[in-house]
Every structure is written in C-alpha cells, then in structure tokens.
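Hey L., structure's done. Input below.
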Amino acid sequence: MICTNVYFIKKDNISLLGNQEKILKHVKKMPGHTQSQITYRLDIAQSTVKYHLLQLIKENKIYSEKLFKIHYFPVGISDKIKIKTCIESNYNLNDIYKNLTKNMTLQEISSICNVSRSMASKRLQVLSSLGAIEKVKLGNKIKFCKK
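Output:
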C-alpha cells in the first residue's frame, strides 16, 4: 500500500513536469501569448497553466508583461521579436499595424480597420507601449505612425 502511494506521487510529479515543459516550449515557440491562449492551444486546465506560468517566472525561465492583457515571454527574447509576436498574435493589433501607412488620426484608423474608436484607441495604446508606433501632435490633432 505504501509503495502504491509513492508510485502515484512519482507519476503525478512526472505529469506536472511534463505540463511545465510543454508550457515552457510553447512560450519559447509562441512568445507573447496570454494565459488563455496557452490554455486553449495546449488543452491544459487553466489552473494548471496558471500554476506553471508562476513557477516558470519564479525559476527565471520566462517573464510576464502587462500590455492590454498579461503576455508571457521567454527570458532573453529580443524587443524586435517581442513586438512582432505580440502584434501577430492579436487580430486587431495586426490589422491596425498593417493598415497604419502614414500619419493617421484615430478616426481614420478606426474607419479603415472597421473597429470602434474605443477598440482602436486601446490597441494603439498597446502598440505604443510596445514601441511599435508613436504619437505625433500635428497642430491640434494627434496622429499615429510606425516607428
């Protein structure tokens, strides 16, 4: 009976390690994903993903950054790759970034991308915090452009 309990503990530890390794590999392969994206793509319970993300942060293997949501990145990732993967993993960010061709106002961006001004504003804030775009004040208007 005692041996059986030890066996189950070892088996659980192995599966925990397996999930942690899967999550670490995913973060390295797809940097910038959120907890829910990782949960969905790996088909692992949300609470398990959350636990292992926190453990990986404590072990200094990954770090998190709050943009509009919390995104996870492997330690040592370059800023250029971080920006690229964040933009590619979110449809609205990607659409806005691709359509930002010149100095454009919020209204122009929301119209071209067919999103509300509120959504465009939030995504522009994220792109700005990533360092992918900058705000330029021209007269009494604020315009956005790629860096």
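Confidence is low (pLDDT under 50) at residues 1-15. Helices lie at 2-29, 35-42, 46-58, 79-88, 91-99, 106-113, 117-130.

-- N.
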